[in-house]
Write a structure and sequence with these properties.
The structure is a single chain. 34% of the residues lie in helices and 26% in strands. It is built from eleven helices and 13 strands. The strands form three sheets. The protein has a six-stranded mixed sheet with strand order 5-6-7-3-8-9, with helices on both faces. A four-stranded antiparallel sheet has the order 11-12-10-13, covered by helices on one side. Strands 2-1-4 form a three-stranded antiparallel sheet, covered by helices on one side. A hairpin with a 2-residue loop joins strand 11 (245-249) and strand 12 (252-256). Helix 3 crosses helix 4 (106-114) and helix 4 (106-114) packs across helix 5 (130-142).
Length: 304
């Protein structure tokens, strides 16, 4: 488990993280979302003791990272896949990591096979593609068989098959009761992978909720209603909140802010014959854009 309590980080006059309090629970994949500059990487670095908090605490299994005797056995992390000496082979890189934390070297071959690098374990890391480097970084995170795992953009550089493999890996690790904390900008992938979402903007917490709850809170959720009787549909429209109804055509309504069940009940009450009653759920990308609309620091101007 990861517990953040009042975590803040300032760089001079710039506040990167503001009073962040979270519990990242085991047994689920927690997605960590936010615009560029939101403070995601800074937060992860503070959890791993790479940056010192200005105030507050970041605890892993009840202790600060610096207090862990064998950190790789408790926390596995991939923050930057490029932090590997290019002259070392994949195998020698992982062996050095294993020796530094008292991890049996047999784990090296096991994790190389897990990430699909067994056949190229003797090649130098400097010759690896971006995707292969990501796989090596994931192998390093898994090396100590830790109960807590943190990944920053783990699918960067991977092809569609590799992206699916990472998704299945994250979910299998969570199913084993591990804590899995994943930062990503790929909303579609997070919608498929995550159970819980933490969204921050300008260093502040914007949301900490299950994926379904974040999606349900979007104003982009709508219900489409079609009827062959425009007069009956007009009666239904009169029963609905004025600001939540659009009428693209005389025989069609688009309703926002109400569940499909409630719209159906109102249509029944008014005796409206229906040819369609369909709920259209917002995507995670749409819900995310709403949540972070006021937190984007580097927005391009809209095209005319």
């Amino acid at each position: 488990m990861i517990v953040l309590s009042g975590l803040s980080k300032r760089y001079g006059e710039t506040t990167a993280v503001r009073d962040l309090s979270l519990r990242i629970e085991p047994g689920k994949v927690t997605g960590f979302l936010g615009p560029n500059g939101a403070g995601k990487s800074t937060t992860m670095r503070m959890i791993l003791g790479l940056d010192r908090p200005t105030s507050g605490t970041a605890l892993v299994n009840g202790r600060e990272y610096a207090g862990l005797r064998h950190p790789l056995r408790e926390v596995g992390a991939l923050l930057d896949a490029k932090t590997v000496h290019p002259g070392r082979t994949a195998r020698s890189h992982l062996k050095a990591m294993a020796r530094s934390n008292g991890i049996p070297t047999r784990r090296v071959e096991a994790v190389l096979d897990t990430v699909g690098l067994g056949a190229v374990a003797g090649k130098r890391a400097g010759t690896f593609s971006l995707g292969m480097g990501q796989r090596l970084g994931i192998a390093g995170a898994l090396l100590g068989d830790p109960r807590v795992l943190m990944f920053d953009e783990p699918v960067n550089g991977l092809d569609p098959d590799g992206v699916r493999w990472v998704r299945e890996l994250m979910r299998s690790l969570a199913a084993e009761g591990r804590t899995v904390f994943v930062s990503s900008h790929l909303m579609s992938e997070m919608q498929l992978t995550a159970d819980q979402l933490v969204v921050i903007g300008k260093g502040r917490l914007l949301a900490d909720a299950p994926v379904a709850e974040v999606l349900a809170g979007s104003s982009r959720n709508t219900v489409k209603v079609r009827s062959p009787q425009p007069a009956a549909l007009a009666r239904l429209r009169a029963r609905l909140p004025a600001g939540q109804v659009e009428q693209p055509s005389p025989g069609e309504l688009v309703v926002s802010g109400l569940p499909v069940e409630r719209v159906g009940e109102l249509a029944h009450d008014e005796g409206v014959p229906l040819h369609e009653l369909t709920a259209h759920e917002a995507s995670l990308e749409q819900a995310y854009m709403e949540l972070t609309a006021d937190s984007v620091e580097y927005a391009a101007p809209e095209r005319p």
